[in-house]
Amino acid sequence: MRTALSFTLLLILTSLSTLAGVHADAPSDGSTVIITADETWNETMTMDGNLIVSSGSTLTIASDVTIATNSTILIEPGATLELTGSLLGDELNSGLAVFNSTQLHLNFGDLAETGQLRINFDQTIPTSAIFNMTIGDQTVDAAGKDHISIDVTLNGSDLLADFHIYYAFEIQIISVQALHSGSAQSPILSANQLNHTAGSLIWNSASFALEVQGTLNLDSATIYGADITCHSECQIQSSTLIGSAPINVEDGASIIVTSSIIQGSRTDEDIIVHDLAEIIYTDNQGTGGVTDGWIRLLSQRQIQTNSGGITVHQTGIGYGSTTRDDFTDSNGLIDIGGSEWKRIVEWVDQNGVYHSEDSELVFTLSTAWGDFSTTIPAPQTPTAVVNIPLPYIEVVSIDAEDTTAEVDKKIGAMVTVRNTGDAAATVNIWCYVGENLTETTSLTTTLTPGEEKVLPVSWWANTDGPQVLNCRALIPDVLKSIAGNVTNIEGGNSQEVGWYIGEETEDKPYVVYAILVVIIVLASTLFARNANKKIEASDVEEHFEEEQQDRRYRRTRRLNCLESGG
To answer: Which string of b and e fits 228-250 if b means at least 16 CB within 10 Å?
Structure first.
């Protein structure tokens, strides 16, 4: 019994020992290998295929691993890759972008007294370009060529190559080779090995992909030619990354980079921090040249406001500090991140200096009630909500002076209005009976936030019967889509007023007609009387004239008779 039990225990221990010793080698034939337990690689090896570190497992690589092109490494959520060795892509597709004033600092050692330096470019340089290289007192024109050669001394002396370039597009140096007749050996330096100033190392393509959904820890490690994406947590300490930029740090992830070297990016930045991902970047050497240390790139810059038709004046937006005017759409939405440059809100430049956009947004809504506006720094988030201060005009009550009134005569009322919003407004109040505009004196007033006023109004009705006066704010067209946010649309109502027709009202037309008839008759009588008087006066005047003529005639005859003696 005791012997059987001991044998059983031995079998169990042997099985556990076997399990603990399970070791997964790197894939070598394009297959997929999954790491399912903690494991350490200490031997130099070659990898060709797909490697997965599964959740709950830690893979430690302390050796050099050369990785074939298009291979992948995936660190699943909850898994860890500890790298103190090297991951080396076997295709190093890099180039050194050269510009006007770029310099190469070269020394190939003591090879020969004289020889030639050959510079290989990534393309044939157009003949229209100005592209000269000078070493010492010799200058070579590279226009129209894909490489140039220049005589140099190769006896261990330092060589300084100056470039004088005026060309709009990027030209890369792929390699530099020392040629001489003293030996068959012709040393060649690839782009990433060149010592330069004012150039920019460009990695044209990655050799393999490294996707971090769990944790990546680099400590005194080296990575060549990786396309690194950090979805969770990446820590890079005292390590060197060549041709492995940009490192993409996705929204929600974090990265810590300390005392490390990142050289050679496929874009204009070594690290791209997306949206609200976190970064700590301390004491590092970046690619330099035209390549920033890191940028924060937003996926979008959408701002939701509380009204359509708002003018948005933008200044200092993004990497280029652009200025622009735009409008919110009918839903109050605006996107200020139309280009990638406008979505870069933070960056560390090629010299290690931190920058953040110095931006301002002025939101203005112009209405018949007045202009409403607010000014803020541009939100550095993918989405934001910005509400401009608006008034809220409320017709509180209408108190008529009586409950009865006579048709065609006015009745007074007091209209109470107040502004419970956040902005002052000058408003017109219109009054209705039912849905029909009714005759009242005009109501216009200005209300500051929190202010209440009582406004007098006169009301006329041209029909009888019970009526209720309803008064409400006249809503400008631009505010109609958000009318409920700026006023109580239903307005305020008076108590019911009974309008009646007065007793004399029915006879008024006949009285008026009678008065008109009397006036006409009197006027006719006066006119006839005046006419008769004029006729009588004319007759008297005519008779008097005839008598005078007769008298003159008779006097003349008498005088004639006396003169003739008769």
So the answer is: bbbbbbbbbeebbbbbbbbbbbb
